[in-house]
């Protein structure tokens, strides 16, 4: 199997030393992803808007890895404030409700106090070649 690294272009990846995603065969492992809009390097104060941006960022990483949200088999949600989680449920249901991956929610401190949610996914490419095969 060949290992391929996928970058989002975020400066954090180079500074910290990680990849947005790693492709290993038919598996795609997407790092914990925040609600930063990397084009503007801004983040909303709303946990719901951050959750939407997380999914935009994750979908972009999956596409670069040749996968899609439909391929997600595992998801982990990390929130500093567990009480914020129910507000995210409609967004989660919209993006993953039909897919129904295995899921875990953790309440834990995150490195940046502006970040209200971080989402990590694992995908298994089952639908052939989706998206582009680019990335680094």
Written overview of the protein:
By secondary structure, the protein is α+β, with helices and mostly antiparallel strands. It has a single domain, classed as 2-Layer Sandwich (60s Ribosomal Protein L30, Chain: A). Helices cover 26% and strands 26% of the residues. It contains three helices and six strands; from the N terminus they run βαββαβαββ. It has a six-stranded mixed β-sheet, covered by helices on one side. β4, α3 and β5 form a beta-alpha-beta unit. α2 packs parallel to α3. The chain is globular, with a radius of gyration of 14 Å. The two termini are 16 Å apart.
Strands, total number? 6
Q: What CATH first level would be assigned?
A: Alpha Beta
The CATH topology comes to: 60s Ribosomal Protein L30, Chain: A
**Global geometry:** globular
Strand percentage lies at 25-35%
Name the structural class: alpha+beta
Total count of domains: 1
Architecture (CATH level 2) name? 2-Layer Sandwich
**Mean pLDDT, nearest integer?**
90
Profile the largest sheet. Answer: 6 strands, mixed
Rg estimate, integer Å:
14 Å
- Main-sheet strand order equals 1-2-3-6-4-5
Give start-end ranges of low-pLDDT stretches: 128-136
């Amino acid at each position: 199997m060949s290992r391929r690294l996928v970058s989002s272009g975020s400066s954090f990846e180079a500074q910290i030393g990680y990849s947005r995603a790693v492709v290993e065969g038919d598996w795609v492992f997407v790092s914990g992803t925040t609600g930063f809009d990397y084009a503007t390097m801004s983040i909303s104060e709303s946990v719901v808007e951050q959750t939407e941006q997380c999914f935009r960022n994750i979908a972009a990483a999956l596409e670069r890895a040749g996968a899609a949200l439909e391929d997600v088999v595992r998801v982990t949600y990390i929130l500093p404030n567990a009480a914020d989680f129910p507000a995210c449920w409609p967004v989660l249901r919209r993006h993953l409700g039909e897919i129904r991956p295995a899921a875990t929610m953790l309440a834990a401190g995150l490195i940046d106090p502006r970040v209200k949610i971080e989402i990590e996914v694992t995908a298994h490419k089952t639908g052939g070649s989706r998206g582009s095969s680019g990335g680094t």
